[in-house]
Amino acid sequence: MITTEANRPVASASQASLVDAATHAIAVAKKLGATAADTEVSTSIGQSITVRMGEIETIEHNRDKGLGITVYLGQQRGNASTSDLSSAAIERTVAAALAIAKFTAPDEFAGLPDADRMAVAPFADLQLNHEWNPTVDEAVAIAKRMEAAAFAVDKRLNNSEGASISTGGSEFIYANSNGFVGGYASTRHSLSCSMIAGTDNGMQRDYWYTSARRQEALESAEAVGRRAGERTVARLKSRRVPSGDVPVLFEAPAAAGLIGAFVGAVSGSALYRKASFLLDSVGTGVFSDLIDIVEDPLLPEGLASAPFDGEGVATQRRHVVKGGVVQGYFLGSYSARKLGLVTTGNAGGNHNLIVAPGPDDFAGLLRKMGRGLVVTELMGQGVNNVTGDYSRGAVGFWVENGEIAFPVEEITIAGNMKDMLKGIVAVGNDVLALGSKQVGSILIEHMAVAGE
Predict the structure, then answer these.
(1) Are strands 372-379 and 403-416 parallel, antiparallel or unpaired?
(2) Is the preceding peptide bond at 359 cis, omega within 30 degrees of 0?
């Protein structure tokens, strides 16, 4: 782990070379007249292999590196980037950024973060780096086991879109002219499988995947394949349902999208552009009072964990929503200044958002709903960030008497996000942690369903 003290020992030779590149870029920027500058230098390496119908379809390897620098001439800003980390290339890149800055209009809100907001060494070790380097033969064998497990679920599974295994890692260093130098290594691995069932008269597809920092935290290849196969077969003989207002249960993967829409509406750029249906929402009850959401950037092995954000500002655990009431926005330094507020350490996006689960599992939520629609997949963007109007194509299942009755397709669900968030009547304990949002299934009291 690199610390803010550039002369301390570093974790690896590769990190040391990134520190050298970053500090060189900052030094050159100062020498050429920049009043301030910041830079990020990164490298990444990965492998992705896909097997389809028992045969290798793709083998991909990637190895990337790059440096991006932003320079300031007072309140004028310019940036440039390069994939060449040699000293000469870095110097040319810094010069290009300065040339751009000279022709940009001054922006009173531009500049580095306030010094008192920066993270201070030593940074917490969040256990984000767990290398996994299967050989091509080993990866192919895993993907084949995954696909075979899917096909074994049901003979109606007669085709595949592929079973994939992806492994990768990256290292980065962020530095600025106020003396901050920090960075770390991280990994992310995943397994995924997508299957097809039925005939030309009634074909369906579905998938499943697992993702984690550490190989041991992944679901097994066999479990992913089985889940993909089961989900695909369950969608056979889908049909439409009559139009009307009914309760809607968003399965956990789809529920994460609802939380994402909320995040977008209370993030800096939407707020200062007044392009949000949740303007001035801090201190107001936006959700039903059942909802608590915590942002935890310091969660060990979290897929969105970080000791500091994209501009070196320290992150911290906080309540974003408590008892349905919004406690804070998602701001970087620039958007915070535009709004007359302070950064929340969210330059680059939100960190691990954890929606407090309720007592019910998925079956319990079905019983609570009684009759209505389960949404498992959504199509289209469908959210108007200014008005909150929501309309998306959906597939899923119809529920009668608290149990799944039959699969559903070719329908649209609609509402307004303000009403939807207020109308949440339960959150399941079937929490998935596959990205930056950790949430169980969400039951909304009613939405408009357009079907037959």
Answers:
(1) unpaired
(2) no
Q: Give the full edge-to-edge strand order of the sheet including 318-322.
A: 325-326, 318-322, 293-295, 353-355, 437-438
d(CA 19, CA 88): 16
Amino acid of residue 384: N
Task: Please give the Cα distance from 130 to 341 (Å, whole number).
Answer: 37
Annotation: CATH topology of 13-234: PmbA/TldD fold (3.30.2290)
Q: Alpha-carbon torsion 342, 343, 344, 350, what sign?
A: positive
> What is the Cα–Cα distance from 123 to 241, expressed in whole angstroms?
54
Distance CA 327, CA 330 (A): 10
pLDDT of residue 2: 44
Query: Is 0.85 topped by the overall pTM?
Result: yes
Q: How confident is the model at residue 12 (pLDDT cuts 50, 70, 90)?
A: low
Residue 344 is predicted with a pLDDT of 97
User: How many residues are there in the chain?
Assistant: 452
The predicted-structure confidence for 22-35, as pLDDT tens digits, reads as follows 999 999 999 999 99
39 phi and psi angles, rounded to 5 deg: -150, 155
